[in-house]
TrEMBL record:
Protein's name according to its UniProt entry: Uncharacterized protein
Native species: Halomicrobium zhouii
Region (Disordered): 134-156
Length: 240
């Protein structure tokens, strides 16, 4: 009886430690390495466009933007010096990591060389991204804005970025992160503010009805940038 209690207690402690590690985003591979296999080793890069406005709306006005929450663990992520693919990764992306020596993430995964920014009108203005490059805050442009195009290539262990319109070339060495300004322009964005008015809904308690938002558009100076990172050469692992 005492032996069973001791075993149960030890098992609970192990589960608690494992649960704490997972909650902190740690030890996902380390404690379960036997359940993963290495499928390749690749030079891994990220280069994503991100934008900033020269000023914020004045007064009580706020920029209309959507916040995108990252739900759960990304299907592909860099974790403790490895590229981890989970079971939700489509076969074409698995093949990409399995059959090539260099991969770049620029909203989608691709091999190199790659045209990471097309130089066409953008459908959204990405204002913030996660450390893995996923967009978390975006705004819808009300006017056209086309950033300068950009190309990415691998030169040995380095990531090489070229912005033809600016006659600019940038090298990102292994372990480096760089933010490169690729152009400036103006764009019209929606802004809004709360009023002291509430909509007149018959039969609904006024306390349960939100205030009316006043909407308008404003033109902002916009700076286009690329956030680039060279992760170096990493093992790619996935569940067995």
């Amino acid at each position: 009886m005492n032996n069973n209690n001791s075993a149960n207690s030890s098992r609970r402690k192990v589960l608690q430690i494992a649960g704490s590690s997972l909650a902190l985003g740690q030890g996902v591979i380390g404690t379960a390495s036997a359940q993963f296999s290495t499928i390749n080793s690749v030079k891994y890069f990220a280069a994503n466009d991100v934008y900033s406005t020269s000023s914020d709306p004045t007064g009580d006005w706020e920029l209309n933007s959507a916040h995108i929450d990252e739900v759960g663990v990304p299907a592909v992520r860099e974790d403790e010096g490895q590229i981890v693919l989970n079971r939700r990764v489509p076969q074409n992306e698995i093949n990409l990591f399995k059959n090539h020596s260099a991969v770049i993430y620029s909203d989608t995964f691709s091999t190199l060389p790659s045209q990471i920014i097309k130089g066409k009108d953008i459908p959204r203005v990405v204002l913030e991204r996660t450390r893995n490059g996923r967009p978390t805050k975006v705004a819808n442009p009300k006017s056209k804005f086309a950033p300068n195009s950009a190309k990415a290539s691998a030169r040995g262990k380095d990531l090489h970025l070229k912005i033809p319109q600016q006659k600019k070339s940038v090298t990102v060495n292994p372990g480096e992160e760089k933010e490169i300004v690729t152009g400036e322009g103006s764009v019209t964005l929606g802004i809004s503010k709360l009023t002291d008015q509430k909509p007149d809904h018959q039969g609904i308690d006024p306390k349960e009805v939100g205030y009316i938002k006043k909407q308008k558009e404003e033109t902002f100076d916009l700076t286009a940038k690329i956030k680039a990172k060279n992760y170096g050469e990493l093992d790619v692992v996935m569940p067995k």
